[in-house]
Structure prediction request, 168 residues.
Amino acid sequence: MFHLSPQEFASKKEHYASLAEQARHLIAGEPSLIANAANFSALVYHSLPQVNWAGFYLYDGTELVVGPFQGKPACIRIAIGAGVCGTAAHTRQSQVVQDVNQHDGHIPCDAASQAEVVVPLVRADGSLLGVWDVDSPVAGRFDEEDRAGMESLCQVFMAHLDGSKAAA
Ligand code: SME
Prediction:
């Protein structure tokens, strides 16, 4: 049984470091991408405050297709370069949107979402797995510490994926 840690953290940095550790344990030893992506989404969604959507869009060779997530049903397909997710995939740079209402090209899924952070997921061989997307109902919810924290979580996920592939 996996227990979400209930303690309060002195800083965001500390909270993300603890989450990264929990994520590492959660996916250790399991090679299934879908299983790990589903549990990873659940871990983050239930551990971070003020989050209404957390999940994956996976690249199918043409566009991004929604993968395992927590939150309300979302748009299914996003073209590379479209919206915040497609921009992260196209530029391979994390995107932090403070206020989605002020952001041209944002694709609304849940009307409650006001802020968003998206991290591109790139395999060790340089190919695109997809993106990691987290939404908040609070404008300005995500800052540079969140971007760095999300990137460190994604690093744990991708290192495991690349490691399992190498071992397979
Ligand atoms: N807002 C995203 C679409 C995905 S949902 O937030 C889950 C975007 O603009 O790409």
